Amino acid sequence: MHKHKVVIVGAGFGGMQAARSLRHPDIEITIIDRRNHHLFQPLLYQVATTLLATSEIAWPIRSVFRNRPDISTLLGDVVGIDREQKRVVLRDGHTVPFDTLILATGARHAYFGRDEWEPYAPGLKALEDATTIRRRLLLAFERAELETDPKAREALLTFAIIGGGPTGVELAGIIAQLAHHTLVKEFRSIDTRTSRIVLVEAGPRVLPAFHPDLSGYAERALEKIGVTIRTGIPVTSCGEDGIRIGETFVPAQTVIWAAGVQASKAGQWLDCPTDRAGRVIVEPDLTVKGMPEIFVIGDTALVTGPDGKPVPGIAPAAKQQGKYAAGIIRDRLSSKPSPKAFRYRHLGNLATIGPSAAVIELGRIRLKGWLAWWIWGLAHIYFLIGTRSRLAVAMSWLWTAVTGLHSARLITQKETLKGEV
Amino acid sequence: MHKHKVVIVGAGFGGMQAARSLRHPDIEITIIDRRNHHLFQPLLYQVATTLLATSEIAWPIRSVFRNRPDISTLLGDVVGIDREQKRVVLRDGHTVPFDTLILATGARHAYFGRDEWEPYAPGLKALEDATTIRRRLLLAFERAELETDPKAREALLTFAIIGGGPTGVELAGIIAQLAHHTLVKEFRSIDTRTSRIVLVEAGPRVLPAFHPDLSGYAERALEKIGVTIRTGIPVTSCGEDGIRIGETFVPAQTVIWAAGVQASKAGQWLDCPTDRAGRVIVEPDLTVKGMPEIFVIGDTALVTGPDGKPVPGIAPAAKQQGKYAAGIIRDRLSSKPSPKAFRYRHLGNLATIGPSAAVIELGRIRLKGWLAWWIWGLAHIYFLIGTRSRLAVAMSWLWTAVTGLHSARLITQKETLKGEV
Fold it and tell me: Could you say which of B56, B147, B170, B361 is catalytic?
């Protein structure tokens, strides 16, 4: 019997959830991803800041589905969709036929048309981004230890984070902790406590998705642990020696980009309408207009709620969409009537600030401080895949809490700091 | 008061032990290394074969010595020694003055004058080597899953390890385990059990440093878990498509070099006599002839025992030399008479073969099988630095023993398989 072929492109939260929910005797699934691993992106900033090891938050896709013989995993770089022939085209020329296609290809960080900033202000989406940032961060302290010119040393000890959303806030918090506590006893020529951590947000307040009370709390908590906050002024340039905030130049050798994102190329592959960020404008059932066999979900789709607001680009939203798409595909196979339009259920917003504070917004409930931190930590451990990672991450955090040490402070890869050979 | 400046170049086992043993109120120590971390090299092959994560076997040098204010750590690439001025010269032009110098700069893998083999047969010395090998290993299976030509598929599923010492034996054992057990359920087009793991040794038997009985046991144990052993014939070429063993061509897309090593450039820096492998020929007190203030220890020194045999290039030997050099320096400061010549105490040889067997030689005691494996495991955990790593490595091993899964199967970095874009 011919099985219904579902191809899922992208093994992020949306794609993984779709595969999990799509268990059906008449369906065979192929997952295609450029990487061999699913990444738990909400903790990626902790790899970038030396708290967690890469393998603690990433799992081989095929290993996750080892007990699902209906799922094949394929390491491949998709470069197009052949809608006529219903085939996915890979860079190496291979094609993969589908009956139904789920595009869950996510987003990359974007520089609002200023791509020339990227070498100076790397963003944080893939594991390699995290190890790149980790290397630059640690190298800045190493070079400062050797530097004799006070001005140059100051620039080496200035860390600028652009973007005041959860990622920016979380990065700033851990870098402050690293500079003001973890590393203090380890350097002999410099006092790492003199480091400046500058968090820049063009909008009026950090954590704009949260209630203003929580933004205010986060700003005070960050300032208390040594973060300088600059809101209301955009970054106007990024270069080798630092950034310009409005008119003011801030010499900084380490800059991290946590501002905009740009959707994947799914819209280009399909040649269909997208919004300014490149997200595919989907129908209420998450398919593309005129292509009922193609679903687009997660960060690469623009889904509008009944209130007219777009569904946010966060993990729970992508998972809900993956589950919904899987449900429709199963219903179609058994010729059930079309279900209702996708309805996003917002579970809440969470962000940590440094080592022992967090802010949480669950509907009308707003929490801050250590209790919020514990809920944040437990929620993240709960959502990690597999007992092994839960144990390992819990142990890493416990270790840091007890000893103040970070367990993954490695400078690896050969590329060195910009400007160096 | 002027303190006696000791500079240690290289934070391997020898350099770290020297720093540990050199605690003296009148001494200040600077450790210089190209990397920011000390690496537990005996377990590096487990990172290359996806059993352990990088951060489980590497620790920032300055973190290890955080409670030793007499020790400064410097990330720098030494390019020469200025003997007249008694200064170490770094690549970036910095110089570091010394009263006493300890060179503990180790060794790299060497290709016996066939450096053109390196791109095809990477060796295993640094963390990046391990992640490179890990990437190639995992990519070979991924590409085989997509390959339709049976010949090409066979070459992708052939893994050749060159060199039958402990590293070669250990690599072959885990790769066999990976192919014949761990990965079996995860691929749909290929049967990973058809993989060939070929261990090539030019000499007459594997583990040449061990008693022939143990070599024989190791060969049988390896064959039992699916390793093909080729002894007595040297590799005559390494290329893009495979290797040549004597006259026979073996198509293999993944080749790992575990054969020769070459000492660091310490001998060139000092312009002093070395042996063929580049090791500095040192005096009985580990100093260089005519340079009593310069010690050379570990893999970069040729130390000859009273039996005329060179001290082996293994961790315990380097540590004994580091401790000995530290003792001499302390004695000199307190004007004690010169101690006796360095005397190497051989503690034994250990090697694992796959997941539950090992061979151990402690003087006249010879052990093999699971008991040897347990002793091997406990010894390695004992020698890891820090409670954190001991727990983490023990947990990784336990996890693999119970579930058969490996915890660090990540393809990272951007370089892809040779031949690919």
Answer: B170
Residue burial B306-339, b: 16+ Cβ < 10 Å; e: rest:
eeeebbbbbbbbbbbbbbbbbbbbbebeeeeeee
Tell me the average pLDDT across A123-149: 93
B232 and B374 belong to one structural domain: yes
Contacts of A60 in chain B (CB under 8 A): 138, 186, 409-410
Domain span holding position B82: 4-34+76-106+264-333
Q: Are A150 and A95 in the same domain?
A: no
Name which of B53, B75, B145 is nearest A142 (Cβ-Cβ): B75
Chain A hits for B416, CB-CB cut-off 8 Å, are none
Report the CATH number that the domain containing residue A254 is assigned in CATH: 3.50.50.100
Q: Do B146 and A36 touch (CB under 8 A)?
A: no
Q: Would you call A402 helix, strand, or coil by DSSP? A: helix
CB pair distance less than 8 Å for B36 and A411: yes
Q: Nearest CA to CA, how far is A77 from chain B (Å)?
A: 12
DSSP A34-58: SSSEEE-GGGHHHHHTTSS-GGGSE
Closest Cβ–Cβ partner in A139, A143, A388 for B407: A388
Beta-carbon contacts of B145 under 8 Å, excluding residues fewer than 6 positions away, are A74, A75, B187, B188, B189, B190
- Give yes or no: residues A190 and A310 share one domain: no
pLDDT digits (tens, 9 = 90+) for A187-237: 999 999 999 999 999 999 999 999 999 999 999 999 999 999 999 999 999
Nearest to B53 among A55, A65, A146 (CB): A55
Instruction: List residues of A with catalytic annotation.
Output: 170
Most confident of B268-272, B373-377, B411-415: B268-272
Name the residue of chain A whose CA is nearest to B47's CA. Answer: A55
Q: Which of B314, B306, B404 is nearest to B355 (CA)?
A: B404
Place A414 in a pLDDT band, splitting at 50, 70 and 90: low
Structural domain total, chain A = 2
**How far B215 CA lies from chain A's nearest CA (Å)?**
35
What tens digit of pLDDT does each residue of A303-357 get? 998 888 899 999 999 999 999 999 999 999 988 887 789 999 998 899 999 777 8
Question: Between chains, do A127 and B189 touch, taking CB under 8 Å as contact?
Answer: no
Between B2 and B298, the more confident residue is: B298
Residue A251's nearest CA partner among A176, A110, A173, A149 is: A149
Q: What is the pLDDT of residues B392-415, one digit of tens each?
A: 888 888 877 777 777 777 777 654
Q: Do A411 and B146 touch (CB under 8 A)?
A: no
Q: Residue A56 and residue A396: Cα distance in Å, rounded?
A: 9
Query: Could you tell me the CA-to-CA distances from A73 to A35, A37, A63, B138 in Å, in that order?
Result: 11, 10, 9, 13
Query: Which residues on B lie below 8 Å from A94 (Cβ)?
Result: 146
Q: What is the mean pLDDT of residues A167-175?
A: 95
Cross-chain residue pair B76–A146, CB shorter than 8 Å: yes
Q: Do B405 and A63 touch (CB under 8 A)?
A: yes
**CATH, residue A321:** 3.50.50.60
3-class DSSP state of B412: coil
Q: Has residue A174 got a pLDDT over 80? A: yes
Cross-chain CB nearest to A186 (options B63, B127, B388): B63
- Reported as a single tens digit per residue, the pLDDT across B302-317 is 999 888 889 999 999 9
